[in-house]
Write a structure and sequence with these properties.
By secondary structure, the chain is of the alpha+beta class. The protein has helices spanning 10-19, 56-62, 78-84, 94-101, 103-112, 126-133, 157-165, 223-239, 273-276, 281-289, 348-362, and strands at residues 2-6, 25-31, 46-50, 68-71, 89-90, 120-122, 137-141, 151-154, 172-176, 182-190, 196-198, 202-207, 210-216, 244-253, 256-263, 302-309, 323-327, 337-345. Helix 1 (10-19) crosses helix 10 and helix 4 crosses helix 5. Bound molecules: adenosine-5'-triphosphate and magnesium ion (2 copies).
């Protein structure tokens, strides 16, 4: 069975690395506009370039005629996805990717399912938005946002006046700034038969909009909060309907959960599952789209994931007995995600010690 992946980044790489032991073959579509660095997936399968207007039958042949397609990112040309469904299955559905690609469609889906998210305004004047939401607020472009890019924080009246005079030259929504206690995410997977498996909530630490660290299971999470997050995800699974891994980022405010955003794919905050769960998110995504039974998602002990941002070379010397390194083989650039280290321990106290060891080695 051959799986085609739209995109050539680290998520495509780790999907392939998880799928090769299952006997799956892989092909990668390189969007000539955005997938400029193919080194992540070189040697892992067939790679074919694509740009708008290309003949899709030729593309499908060049990819070795996959049995199913999936995506490693939501910022994709929906016409390409639609076109490929003429040749074989695509998971999650085009509709699912479309909803997560656009921040406003995502917000509308959440509202329709009565899933709480941060209050927002769309299509109204900035001063009016500020009146309704209060300051600080954040403007987020509807498309092409990742790692906090294409966002504008409006802290005070001075910044509001500045932005109102020259608003972003892109379609955006304004969102209330949430004074959250912490950020968590839920990674879940739904099979073609509707079976679902959910991982425990993961705590995520961001720096300047970029994920730097995840800890799973998140601490201080009541069974009710886990249940509530799972209910939200199941509602989304059923509404779309969905096949594959879905990631849901949430803000924790007191004992309340607000959904920040969705990603219709494997997710950086799920990388810990490679070391800390019976079945990792990558394998479960493949099992789902290949029509196989899903694997168990319980956490084994406590696990941390440390992102490597802009690191020049694979820091193998940081490895300890409890750590594993995933190097993406990308060209390093400042703040670019080039790898991660997973660290596993029997409990959170031991995990903190293990993290300190790895961090000390990283900073040598
Ligand atoms: P990703 O790389 O996760 O796709 P993104 O560019 O889509 O990121 P968001 O997840 O919307 O961006 O925002 C990035 C981070 O900025 C969040 O994880 C959070 O730390 C902070 N943030 C975003 N929106 C808000 C908000 N309304 N209130 C408080 N913090 C926010
Ligand atoms: Mg995002
Ligand atoms: Mg995010």
């Amino acid at each position: 069975m051959r799986i085609g992946i739209i995109g050539c980044g680290q998520l495509a790489r780790m999907l392939a690395l998880a799928g090769l032991p299952l006997g799956l073959k892989f092909s990668f579509v390189a969007d000539t506009g955005s997938d400029t660095d193919l080194s992540c997936v070189e040697g892992l399968g067939l790679i074919a370039p694509w740009q708008a207007g290309d003949n899709l039958a030729d593309l499908y042949d060049a990819l070795g005629q996959p049995d199913a397609f999936t995506v490693e990112k939501e910022q994709v040309d929906l016409n390409l996805l639609h076109g490929l469904t003429a040749f074989c299955r695509f998971a999650p559905s085009v509709n699912s990717v479309a909803h997560c690609k656009s921040r406003i469609e995502e917000k509308q889906l959440l509202a329709q399912l009565q899933i709480p998210s941060a209050p927002f305004c769309y299509g109204i004047d900035l001063n009016q938005s500020a009146k309704e939401l209060g300051l600080p607020m954040v403007l987020k472009s509807l498309h092409d946002g990742y790692d906090g890019k294409n966002q504008w924080l409006v802290k005070d009246d001075r910044q509001l006046t500045q932005l109102a005079a020259s608003p972003p030259q892109t379609d955006y929504l304004a969102e209330q700034w949430v004074a959250f206690d912490r950020e968590v995410s839920l990674i879940g997977v739904r099979s073609t038969t509707g079976d679902t498996q959910l991982y425990p909530l993961t705590e995520n630490v961001h720096h300047q909009g970029i994920l730097v660290r995840s800890i799973a299971p998140a601490q201080g999470i009541t069974p009710l909060m886990q249940q509530t997050a799972e209910d939200y995800m199941r509602a989304i699974f059923d509404a779309l309907p969905y096949v594959g891994v879905l990631a849901m980022e949430l803000f924790v405010v007191g004992d309340k959960l607000l959904v920040n955003e969705l990603a219709p794919r494997v997710h950086n905050s799920g990388h810990w599952t490679q070391l800390g769960a019976m079945t990792c998110q990558f394998e479960n995504h493949l099992r789902a789209i290949a029509g196989l039974p899903l694997g168990a998602t319980q956490a084994q002990g406590a696990t941390a994931m440390l992102n490597l941002l802009g690191t020049a070379a694979a820091p193998r010397e940081a490895l300890t007995t409890n750590a594993s390194l995933h190097w993406y083989n990308k060209t390093p650039q400042p703040q670019r995600k080039v790898g991660h280290i997973n660290i596993n321990a029997c409990d959170h106290a031991q995990l903190q010690q293990q993290i300190a060891q790895v961090e000390a080695r990283l900073s040598r």
